[in-house]
Amino acid sequence: MGVGQVLLVLLAACAVMPAKDPLLNICMDAKHHKTKPGPEGMLHDQCAPWKDNACCTANTSSEAHKDQSNLYNFNWNHCGLMPPKCKRHFIQDTCLYECSPNLGPWIDQADSSWRRERILHVPLCKEDCEEWWEDCKDYVTCKENWHKGWNWATGTNRCPWGSMCRPFSHVFPRPKDLCEKIWSNSYKYTTEHRGSGRCIQMWFDPAQGNPNVVVAKYYAWKKRSSPAWMEDVTPETDKAVCALPWPVLVLLPLALVVLPEAAGGCGSHGWGSL
């Protein structure tokens, strides 16, 4: 096979090679996220499951475990000391948000000064929402939506003037209320179970692999199949792309010269027989 024909084969392979899916294995454009996911030597405690492929750094994972974190100056103990069993879920929530590269199908534009993107309606597994609510129902808080409305006069979040600290079970009567309201619909309560491939787990055993990879793939496929996605997608986004090796790119002009010459001199075994 001549040089020109080899190049044609490479170009043909390129034509059918699928593009990198823009919804999979990505990091959102937010305050502490890396530009792209990758391995971290070590992530702290409950963020450790993402260490092989993470959107967070080791420092971010360490800060996620502090009562008064430098990540957002957010104080979990705004109505008294948060019990460890409750705080565990908020740390897992923070680790998922900061570290997971599997939230692409739910990344949305954000209208805030500190981040360009956020997550919206991530389908949490039934067990995750219900265990979060069960372990926090006796803790107290003064707000339903923790994204906004705080008194930041001291540089950290305090309850707004006139608000009262009430049990979680009063502010969030059901697990669905907690999961969906506390972070402005970042999460969506579902009846799907862990291991179903249809819901995101806030935490997982890394020895068993990351179950959220297949979930992201399913919802990415579902989103790409929707009419809204087809209307919004640009030709550049939907086009198959191929990164040819630089030697091929260098030899491409040569192929345009060699191929016509070869076509005239190949006899009955070459292009001249066509």
- Secondary structure tally: strands: 6
| Spatial gap, N to C terminus | 16 Å
Alpha carbon gyration radius: 25 Å
Number of helices: 10
What sort of overall outline do the alpha carbons produce when their principal axes are compared?
globular
Structural class: mainly alpha
Question: In which range does the helix fraction lie?
Answer: 25-40%
- Write the element-wise H/E pattern from the N-terminal end onward: HHHEEEHEEHHEHHHH
Largest sheet: 2 strands, antiparallel
Poorly predicted runs: 6-18, 230-252, 258-274
Write a compact overview of the structure shown.
The chain is built from ten helices and six strands, in the order αααβββαββααβαααα. By secondary structure, the protein is mainly alpha-helical.
SSE arrangement:
Elements: H1 3-16, H2 58-63, H3 84-99, E1 107-109, E2 117-119, E3 122-124, H4 126-136, E4 140-141, E5 166-167, H5 168-171, H6 175-181, E6 187-189, H7 212-224, H8 227-232, H9 235-238, H10 246-264
Parallel strand pairs: 3-6
Antiparallel strand pairs: 1-2, 4-5
Report on the architecture of this protein.
The protein is mainly alpha-helical and 274 residues long. It is 36% helix and 6% strand. The protein contains ten helices and six strands, in the order H-H-H-E-E-E-H-E-E-H-H-E-H-H-H-H. The chain has helices at 3-16, 58-63, 84-99, 126-136, 168-171, 175-181, 212-224, 227-232, 235-238, 246-264, and strands at 107-109, 117-119, 122-124, 140-141, 166-167, 187-189. The strands form three sheets. Strands 1-2 form a two-stranded antiparallel ribbon. A two-stranded parallel sheet has the order 3-6. The protein has a two-stranded antiparallel sheet with strand order 4-5. The longest helix is centred in the C-terminal third of the chain and has 19 residues, at 246-264. It is globular, with a radius of gyration of 25 Å. It starts with a helix and ends in a 10-residue tail after the last helix.
